Structure to design on (95 residues):
């Protein structure tokens, strides 16, 4: 069941988080679906970054699948409209 791996995914994201934060970004766990699809929200400099998809698939998804083999995939969801941050074009992860 998805809720059984939720805590494992959360712990794995906590290990990934410092790397994202070092570049001004972050990741929020939104949900783990019944088919073990992890939905996350990229935040800070990662939100809207042209490299976000690569970060998501080659960084976050790869790490999660290694640590939590039950994970099928990782998908990014957009922030709610009322949760809009200032348009800060600080450049993410050096890009």
């Amino acid at each position: 069941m998805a809720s059984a791996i939720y805590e494992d995914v959360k712990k794995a994201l906590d290990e990934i988080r410092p790397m994202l934060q070092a570049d001004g970004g972050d990741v929020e766990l939104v949900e783990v679906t019944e088919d073990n699809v992890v939905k996350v929200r990229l935040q800070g400099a990662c939100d809207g970054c042209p490299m976000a998809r690569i970060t998501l698939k080659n960084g976050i998804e790869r790490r999660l699948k290694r640590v939590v083999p039950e994970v099928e995939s990782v998908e990014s969801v957009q922030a709610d409209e009322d949760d809009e941050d200032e348009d800060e074009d600080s450049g993410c992860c050096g890009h």
Notes: The CA atoms of residues 45 and 88 lie 8 Å apart. The first helix runs from residue 2 to 22.
